[in-house]
Amino acid sequence: MRALTYQGPYRVAVRNKAEPKIEHPQDGIVRVTAASICGSDLHLLHGLVPDTRIGFTFGHEFTGVVEELGPARPPAEVVGLPRALVDVGRRF
After folding, report:
1. How does pLDDT run across 13-63, given as a tens digit for each residue?
2. Domain that residue 70 falls in
3. Which of 4, 11, 18, 65 is deepest in the core (most CB within 10 A)?
4. CA distance 33 to 1
5. Other beta carbons within 10 Å of 41
6. CB atoms within 10 A of CB 6
7. Environment class of residue 90 by beta-carbon count within 10 Å: exposed (0-12), middle (13-18) or buried (19+)?
8. CB-CB contact of 48 with 18 (8 Å)
């Protein structure tokens, strides 16, 4: 999968990352169809958060299609993530 990654202050690059997998019963995997970085990512981009590591993935605001759910998740089809956390069981 491709991701927008931090490469140092004011530098980003699209890099290949490992495909996600279900690790916990409440996990979900979403195929992203549209994404964006948000204002909070700008602090990282500008190098203002000292612990930001090279390779960190930007873009926690996205919309996508649910590809796989852990056994503790109810069925879902489409999700939008305006924040870092969301209940993927909610239907829109």
Report:
1. 999 999 999 999 888 888 888 887 788 888 999 999 988 999 998 877 788
2. 2-81
3. 4
4. 12
5. 20
6. 21
7. exposed
8. no
